[in-house]
Amino acid sequence: MKGRTIRMSAGAAAVALSFALAPIHARALETPRSCGSDPHIQCATYDPDQAYRVATMPGRAVMIQFEPGEHIINSGEGIGDGKAWHVAINDSGAMLKPGAPQPETNLLLVTNRRTYPLSLVDVSAVQPATWILRFDYPDTRAKAASAQLRRQEAVSAALGGQQGNGPAVPASIANSVGVAKSTPVASVPAANIQYMMRGDHALAPTALWDDGRFTYFKYSTARDLPTIFTKLPDGGEATANFHMEGDTVVVHEVSKSFVIRYGQSVLGIRNDGYSPDGHYNRAGSSVPGSARIARDHTDASTN
Fold first, then answer.
1. What is the pTM (predicted TM-score) of this model?
2. Do 121 and 207 have their domain in common?
3. pLDDT by residue (tens digit) across 31-78?
């Protein structure tokens, strides 16, 4: 661990010493609590207006640990009694070790995000000494919650208020296949249901449509699902990429022709409403119910 020993100017030492000698009237020192089963590993909730009591003991090192990405700035350390303490700075925080008996003093640490006023108190064997002190950061949690809310709002805006967990089903198809009234059904004016089939109709879906981005093969039956292929421009076939939504196979494309196969049975499907330009993908995502949002909708990490 690389570190640096604090060397303080006379002016900085005077400021730190005045802080140590000044009485604290407004608030008492906060004593960190144990984080878990080991009393030497302690935690505290960060408050910019609160000073913290750090229990020290001769011959025992103390680690003040910050959150990821937080570090002490240049000349951001100040200690009341620099001769009685060895302080080393690293990427995770500060490492302290007393170099004299009963070295009670105060320590100020200024990071790229916060200021930490600490009181280094000698406890001898009266109570467990602090070996590691970590902080919980309400401001970080608030920023994360705010960023998550903005992401959700951005996704909702991109999806245009779409609701329902399943694929949007045109009303004509919903009525023809007997969809229960309790099932969320959205009418999609742009849905295309102009499909012709030729071959083994035992492989035919109970409903078939596309929305300009995806093609939906609904199988409201108990029979095994066949394999769906898309017809390539050169006449070849390629297995269609898909995912399942309930009883509906959602193919991740719209094609002029599909071929459905199961064993030796074959069903050809022609899309008579095929539009090579498709529809504008407002959500920017290939997964229904999700949206791709710009990076500026999320908070970048503070350096």
1. 0.49
2. no
3. 999 998 999 999 999 999 999 999 998 888 999 999 999 999 998 889
Please report where in the chains the tokens 């969320």 appear, as a residue: 184
- List Cβ neighbours of 223 (8 Å cut-off, separation of 6 or more): none
The CATH number covering residue 265 comes to 2.60.40.2500
- pLDDT tens sequence across 171-216: 556 555 444 443 344 444 468 999 999 999 999 999 999 988 899 9
Q: Name the strand (E) or helix (H) holding 209.
A: strand 207-210
Q: Which ranges of the chain would DSSP assign to H, the alpha helix?
A: 10-21, 138-159, 171-176
Coarse DSSP helix, strand, coil percentages of the chain, rounded to the nearest 5 percent: 15, 35, 50
Q: Which domain holds residue 134?
A: 33-139
* Residue 121 phi, psi (nearest 5): -115, 135
Nearest one of 148, 158, 147 to 289, comparing CA atoms: 158
The DSSP symbol for 206 reads S
Looking at residue 214, the DSSP 8-state letter turns out to be -
